Amino acid sequence: MEENYLISLIVLAFCYGLVFFKKETRISLEPETKKYSLDKKVSGLTGVDKYLQDKFPQIEDTGVAKYLASKEQGSPVSGVSKYLAQQAAETKQSVKENASGVEKYLNNRG
Fold first, then answer.
1. Of 2, 71, 77, 103, which cross-links 99 as Cys (Cβ 3.0–4.6 Å)?
2. Would 96 be classed as within a structural domain?
């Protein structure tokens, strides 16, 4: 009889634990959205950039930054591009000079 009492006490404690210590899982139909706080001013700099600016404020542009700045300004016209522009202009001029009467009429017609 005492064994039955002990087993029923264990079963009762187990049921009590299931009821009161059960984790509730709630299923929502709406997808979870993460909420980010935008209270701080966003500077676009990473933590490493900020650290380096604080630690070494006298550092100027790197070689890569100088190279990219020079590319943004535009490159000078090369000799090849000058030659190609000159050839295109000469070709247009020679076509106009060697045009037949019909071609001149069609070009001037508008």
1. 103
2. yes
| Count of domains for the chain | 1
- Tell me what pLDDT residue 78 has: 82
Return the structure tokens found at 89. Answer: 């202009």
In a domain, 68, yes or no: no
Query: pLDDT for 73-106, tens place per residue?
Result: 766 678 898 899 999 999 888 877 888 888 888 8
Q: DSSP string spanning 8-35?
A: HHHHHHHHHHHHHSPPP----SSPP---
| Position 90 in a domain | yes
Contact between residue 92 and residue 86 where contact means Cβ atoms under 8 Å apart: no
pLDDT tens-digit readout, 50-63: 888 888 776 677 78
Identify the domain containing residue 83 by its residue range.
79-110
Separation of alpha carbons 104 and 101, rounded Å: 5
